[in-house]
């Protein structure tokens, strides 16, 4: 099992050709908690092409407002990238391997 990890990353501004890498899943699903601790809106996507458009992010992006947070599950070998809608993009991230949970009928 992959160890859990915590990190804070600076997110490049819209217009960059190299969005920031938030997380990469290896051979197993990965749970990713992302909190926007910066002052600007951040855009998240699974591929860099959606974020690296000269005119700004296109379709296929998730908008995470300042002080917002959310949990994502990446499929094996899937990645997540980010850009910020201005200077000061900052995300704090916690990752852990996502393993299946078997629910039993509680009748």
Would you kindly provide a written description of the structure presented here, covering whatever features stand out?
The chain is mainly β. The protein has one domain (5-97): Jelly Rolls, CATH 2.60.120. The chain has strands spanning 5-11, 20-24, 30-36, 42-45, 62-64, 69-74, 79-84, 89-97. A 4-stranded antiparallel β-sheet has the order 1-8-3-6, with no helix packed on it. Strands 2-7-4-5 form a 4-stranded antiparallel β-sheet, with no helix packed on it. The relative contact order is 0.38.
Helix content: under 10%
Instruction: Give the N-terminus to C-terminus distance in angstroms.
Output: 33 Å
Low-confidence stretches: none
CATH architecture group name: Sandwich
pLDDT averaged residue by residue: 92
CATH topology: Jelly Rolls
Number of helices: 0
Overall domain count: 1
Q: What is the CATH superfamily classification?
A: Jelly Rolls
Largest sheet: 4 strands, antiparallel
Structural class: mainly beta
SS elements, strand count: 8
Q: What percent of residues are in strands?
A: 35-45%
Summarize the helices and strands and which ones pair or pack.
Layout: E1 5-11, E2 20-24, E3 30-36, E4 42-45, E5 62-64, E6 69-74, E7 79-84, E8 89-97
Antiparallel strand pairs: 1-8, 2-7, 3-6, 3-8, 4-5, 4-7
């Amino acid at each position: 099992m992959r160890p859990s990890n915590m990190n804070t990353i600076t997110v490049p501004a819209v217009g960059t050709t190299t969005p920031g890498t938030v997380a990469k899943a290896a051979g197993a699903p990965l749970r990713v908690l992302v909190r926007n601790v910066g002052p600007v809106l951040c855009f998240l996507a699974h591929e860099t092409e959606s974020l690296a458009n000269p005119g700004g992010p296109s379709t296929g992006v998730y908008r995470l407002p300042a002080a917002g947070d959310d949990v994502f599950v990446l499929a094996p070998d899937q990645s997540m990238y980010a850009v910020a809608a201005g200077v000061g993009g900052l995300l704090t991230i916690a990752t852990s391997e996502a393993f299946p949970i078997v629910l039993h009928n509680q009748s």
